[in-house]
Amino acid sequence: MSEQKKQVAKKPSVLGIMAAKFNLAPDVFLNTIKATVMAPGKSGKLPSNEEIAAFLVVANKYNLDPFTNEIYAFPNKKGGIIPIVGIDGFATIMNRQKGFNGYEIAYDEEEITMEGAKSCPKWAEVKIYHKDRDHATIVREYLDEVYVPARGNFAGPWQTHTKRMLRHKVLIQAIRMAFGITGIFDPDEGERILDAQVVEAGKPEVAIPQAKGEAPSDSSPEPQQEPPKEENGYKAMLEKFAMAKKVLGEDKYYDILGNNGYEKSNQIRKMVDGNKILEEMRKEVEVQAGAKPK
Questions:
Q1: Is residue 79 domain-shared with residue 204, that is, in the same domain?
Q2: Are residues 56 and 188 in the same domain?
Q3: Could you write out the DSSP letters of every residue in 226-267?
Q4: Which residues contact residue 72 at a Cβ distance below 8 angstroms, ignoring those fewer than 6 apart?
Q5: Among the listed ranges 62-71, 99-108, 110-119, 244-253, which one has the minimum average pLDDT value?
């Protein structure tokens, strides 16, 4: 009897798995992610293919859609990635849990006012119920501990929508505790990491380790005469948003962003979406000036 060779099935790559979810060829999917989802970091550094692969591992793990802003990421200064998940992404994770049985949210009757913010309950508490547990998961967050001050004297969502942001923060923390969610950050945490530009050793959810013998990406950057067009375009778009905020005023600016599903302009991954919102802001400026929108 001839010996039959065992055929070992080749495991699909994470790129192939994610591309298949959207019925795209792997190379098309990769180029689309580069152009629309993973923007340059504050240093202007574009993500490498390895960093994109690390991002896709996280997106695949939690089954989040990068094209609807459930998850996005920035490359950090030292070659890793910072995967960011907003409230919509965390809510998606929560609702997919088999044992999830609803939640309740409660607020302190006493309100306080942080500098530059609106009056808000002193704390908020979320109680998540489980079908397979006797006790609920209860998490309380205090406003004075999670509040994010205005950056550069410009009001942000914590100043204009203080109660909403406290609700988002406590719900995200409760979801983490209830279902053991690790390796992803909310937008506020991502901003702090980018500002500090510090990567702590030993935390793979922040920095993707280098292979043995491989030099860190910062030490061997690819030769580049000028930034890619995508980077220049993205930076120009953010500059237009900064100008729009000055002209419109913070309240109207953040109202328009919020109506389009964003808290900050740097959460917008697709330039086509950003330009659409900028056009809406331009029309609002004309309305405020008494001109007929074009």
A1: yes
A2: yes
A3: S--HHHHHHHHHHHHHHHHHHHH-HHHHHHHHHHTT-SSGGG
A4: 37, 38, 39, 66, 83, 84, 267, 269
A5: 244-253
Same domain, yes or no: 80 and 93: no
When divided into structural domains, the chain yields a total of 3
Tell me if residue 13 falls in helix, strand or coil: coil
Residue type, 228: P
C-alpha triplet 231, 218, 78: angle, nearest 5°:
85
Indicate whether 124 belongs to any domain: yes
Cα–Cα distance, 74 to 233 (Å, whole number): 16
Residue range 203-240, pLDDT digits in tens: 444 444 444 444 444 444 444 444 444 555 777 788 78
Largest CA distance in the chain: 90
Whether the pLDDT of residue 24 is over 60: the answer is yes
Domain extent at residue 113: 89-180
Residues 154 and 281 in one domain: no
CA 166 to chain centre: 17
69: three-class secondary structure by DSSP: coil
More confident residue, 47 or 61: 61
The mean pLDDT value for 11-38 works out to: 88
> Helix (H, G, I), strand (E, B), or coil: what is residue 80?
coil
Per-residue pLDDT, 199? 39
Note the Cα 205 to chain centre separation in Å: 14
- Backbone φ and ψ for 109, nearest 5 degrees, come out as -70, -25
Percent of the chain with pLDDT over 90: 41
- 125 alpha carbon, distance to own chain's centre: 23
CA distance 205 to 223: 28
Nearest to 283 by CA among 273, 267, 294: 294
